[in-house]
Amino acid sequence: xxxxxxxxxxxxxxxxxxxxxxxxxxxxxxxxxxxxxxxxxxxxxxxxxxxxxxxxxxxxxxxxxxxxxxxxxxxxxxxxxxxxxxxxxxxxxxxxxxxxxxxxxxxxxxxxxxxxx
Length: 117
Description:
The chain is mostly helical. The protein starts with a helix and ends with a helix. It is 82% helix and 0% strand. It has helices spanning 4-12, 23-56, 59-85, 90-115. The model has no long low-confidence stretch (mean pLDDT 84). It contains four helices and no strands.
């Protein structure tokens, strides 16, 4: 039984589970993880929609999956790309992402009302 690791932590003044990151860094990490999770989940919804479409040949499933992707995943990626690679203003980026979300909602509504006939 050795006590060297405990002595090392005691000498450095920190405990083994203590974080040295600032609250701002943790907040950035949480935002990044939320961003990645949102994009991954919307892609999973799209994949499941495409698989269901291939199985049933019901275009409503494909439309719903594409609408959800336009509503959740695409605006995040568009915001990231336009904000980091172009000189577009914040207002322009907001308009583009809002129009993407609006097109997703429009597609979902179109699919819902089309299948109710």
